[in-house]
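Why this split exists: single-chain examples teach little about how molecules sit against one another. For that reason, every record in the complexes split bundles all components of an assembly together and asks for one structure covering all of them. Below is a record exactly as it appears in the raw files.
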Amino acid sequence: IVLTQSPGTLSLSPGETATLSCRASQTISSNYLSWYQQKPGQVPRLLIYGASARATGIPDRFSGSGSGTDFTLTISRLEPEDFAVYYCQQYGSSWTFGQGTKVEIK
Amino acid sequence: QVQVVQSGAEVKEPGASVKLSCKAFGYSFTSYATHWVRQAPGQGLEWMAWINIDSGNREISQNFQGRVTLSRDSYASTAYLELSRLRSEDTAVYYCAIGIAATGTYYWGQGTLVTVSS
């Protein structure tokens, strides 16, 4: 399964809403789709699993939606600490990652 | 509290092999997958392989077939990845992550930097 994320870079101001897209080349079974956040020098941090379930400790401004082949991560009211790279991932038997979307400060 | 601890940084010459370890602490399931993912400097995440710590079932990405060997010590909750015939392009941080797909939650290690240089 190939995952294609868009856009490559998103330039936004704190307080705005970020909408990130992830499209799969084939249906992702059981909605085994996650979103990760990664900051420079840090381990990827799980935000969303099962397409829409927030991981433990993740603020409710992060939300995931979608099914089948089209998925979205929405970050409402961007905080300064939200500027990072975001990856979608399918986690069936094997894994695949999207190429990442960088959310940068405008 | 689940903790995943990886072995320390490695420096290898081209053509050599490296063996990395990944040990889980406090994970309540006895049958789980350990996945290996790497990230070259400035690049994205690349999945390499997985092994089931209990059964030993495994799968290796086509990109690494013939160069990756997976093993595990289930009693020590430790998985190993060996990468052979190293080249400069293998310089990366190698992460392991443990979990079960049905739970959706995977726990990541701190990463191991492997530098391949002559």
